[in-house]
Specification:
With about 170 residues, the chain is an alpha/beta fold. The chain is built from 5 helices and 6 strands. The chain starts with a strand and ends with a helix.
Length: about 170
């Protein structure tokens, strides 16, 4: 897919206009990528997040990036995996709503972690399909808007899942 990359590494080092945080509903930090982003951004991030009133599953909210290379952080809350059909819908909304918010703020590059695949238990092979398909659909519907999408993977296993899915997706 044009303007879509899969990268193995630390999302907090991304040079994208914004990075996506796989956040808890409170938006006040946590473990995994959420904790890493809050730590790298500094204490100003949690202070701004505290003013946002939390975030519902599938939704997205934006803050400044503070000490990050990225100017902004888009916080989205993924579903805790239960196997229900609604899990896939909500996970897809995380990607779509994040992209919509980036576009609304005139941002042209975004870096995503593998939302919900950590402690929220979403199976990586299912989550990558949803992520890639949501991004493809969004890019198809927004052909007039230039947006680079980076999928950041913390493990080689996740990286391989994204590469496989992108190879099998027609754009």
């Amino acid at each position: 897919m044009k303007d879509v990359r899969v990268l193995l590494g630390d999302i907090t080092q991304s040079d994208a206009d914004c990075i996506v945080n796989a956040a808890k509903k409170s938006l006040l930090g946590g473990g995994g990528v959420d904790g890493a982003i809050h730590k790298a951004a500094g204490p100003e991030l949690v202070k701004e997040c505290a003013t946002l009133g939390g975030c519902e599953t599938g939704e997205a909210k934006i803050t400044k990036g503070y000490k990050l290379k990225a100017a902004y952080v888009i916080h989205t809350v993924g579903p805790v995996y239960s196997g229900a059909e609604s899990d896939a819908v909500l996970l897809g909304q995380c990607y779509t709503n994040s992209l919509d918010l980036a576009k609304k703020h005139n941002l042209h590059s975004i870096a995503f972690p593998a939302v919900s695949t950590g402690v929220y238990g979403y199976p990586p092979e299912k989550a990558t399909v949803i992520a890639v398909e949501a991004v493809k659909k969004w890019k198809d519907e927004n052909r007039d808007y230039r947006m680079r999408v980076d999928f950041y993977c913390f493990s080689e296993m996740m990286y391989a899942q994204y590469i496989l899915k992108l190879k099998n997706t027609r754009y």
